[in-house]
């Protein structure tokens, strides 16, 4: 199963609370463009943004950062996984 971009999970959280991206940005004290870019899958969730989201939604920064790491690792596996496997030998 391919992990979803964390922006999709964030979109679900906003929809469940009928909250706009701008309202969330104000609550998190971040630029609205940051939230919009995350929602559109154009930006990763940084550690700082994860802390802010975790505090706001009450699920902790690790939750948001773990979503990002799973997505990034799956993306790397799809794009360069075969190349890495061919180039790098396992340690003995």
CATH class: Mainly Alpha
Tally of separate helices:
5
Largest sheet: none
CATH structural architecture: Orthogonal Bundle
Number of strands: 0
**Helix coverage percent:** over 70%
Which fold name corresponds to the CATH topology?
434 Repressor (Amino-terminal Domain)
Strand content: under 5%
Instruction: Give the count of structural domains.
Output: 1
**Cα distance, first to last residue?**
31 Å
- CATH homologous superfamily caption: lambda repressor-like DNA-binding domains
Rg (C-alpha, Å): 16 Å
Average pLDDT, rounded to a whole number, is: 96
Shape: elongated
What does this structure look like?
The chain is about 70% helix and about 0% strand. It has about 90 residues and is mainly α. The radius of gyration is 16 Å and the shape is elongated. It has helices at about 5-15, 20-30, 30-40, 45-55, 60-85. It contains 5 helices and no strands. Helix 1 (about 5-15) packs across helix 3 and helix 4 (about 45-55) packs antiparallel against helix 5. It has one domain: 434 Repressor (Amino-terminal Domain) (Orthogonal Bundle).
Quick structural overview:
With 92 residues, the chain is mainly α. It has a single domain, classed as 434 Repressor (Amino-terminal Domain).
Element layout with pairings:
Blueprint: H1 6-16, H2 21-28, H3 32-39, H4 47-57, H5 61-87
Helix pairs in contact: 1-3, 2-3, 4-5
Supply database-style keywords:
92 residues; mainly alpha; 434 Repressor (Amino-terminal Domain); elongated
């Amino acid at each position: 199963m391919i992990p979803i971009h964390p922006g999709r999970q964030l979109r679900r959280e906003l929809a469940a609370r009928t909250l706009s991206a701008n309202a969330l940005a104000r609550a998190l004290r971040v630029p609205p463009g940051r939230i919009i870019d995350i929602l559109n899958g154009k930006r990763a969730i940084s550690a700082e943004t994860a802390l802010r989201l975790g505090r706001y939604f009450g699920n902790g920064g690790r939750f948001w950062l773990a979503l990002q790491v799973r997505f990034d690792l799956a993306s790397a596996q799809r794009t360069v996984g075969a190349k890495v496997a061919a180039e790098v030998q396992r340690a003995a």
